[in-house]
Amino acid sequence: MAYPGYGAGYGGAPGGVPGGVQQDPLYGYFSAIAGQDGQISPDELQRCLTQSGMSGSYQPFSLDTCRLMINMLDRDMSGTMGFQEFKELCQVLNGWKTTFMSFDRDRSGAVEGQELQQAITTMGYNLSPQAMNCIMKRYSVNNRIPFDEFVSCCVRLRALTDQFRRRDTSQTGNASFQYDDFIQVTMSV
Ligand SMILES: [Ca+2]
Ligand SMILES: [Ca+2]
């Protein structure tokens, strides 16, 4: 179904809310972060990811990246994160962290440009050298990519691919955008 240009590494959304959510070990953690409204906002997410050690000894995620993480999985378009969305984010983040660590062999907290390209390819994206170059220019610091930038890159790449795929109804790798639609897509990722 998907042509090779799309990322293959992410599946669809889990369906309905399974029963016994309260029994989920993650639930207590989720509700502590979410607070009164039962929803995680971008600043709550930023605090939680920093405290949970998800970013480890790495730099904390920027508020912008946290906003993007929420948007990426915000199926009900609430702008905040419910429990199921949060669970999905944890899975996605763990996957990215595993990928990152497998390339950061010396545990320096950053990967080299070449390794970023390999990581992107490993995740199933089929990009030209030119596209890889754009990514490098945007996310590298002295030709190295720290973890928070890596995640920021992964979030954006996935969100843009999702948006593109939605408009590429014939799944041929081509889509047409109206100007306003294009602006909406690019300004929201
Ligand atoms: Ca909240
Ligand atoms: Ca939501």
From TrEMBL:
A single GO molecular function term of this UniProt record: calcium ion binding
Compartment list: Cytoplasm; Endomembrane system
Segments forming domain EF-hand: 91-126
Keywords: Calcium, Cytoplasm, Membrane, Metal-binding, Repeat
Keyword presence, Membrane: yes
Domain of life of the organism encoding this protein: Eukaryota
Keyword Oxidoreductase set for record: no
InterPro entries to which the protein is assigned, alphabetical: EF-hand-dom_pair (IPR011992), EF_Hand_1_Ca_BS (IPR018247), EF_hand_dom (IPR002048)
Predominant subcellular localization, coarse grouping: cytoplasm
Recorded GO CC terms: cytoplasm; endomembrane system
Entries under Pfam families matching the protein: EF-hand_5, EF-hand_8
Entry protein name: EF-hand domain-containing protein
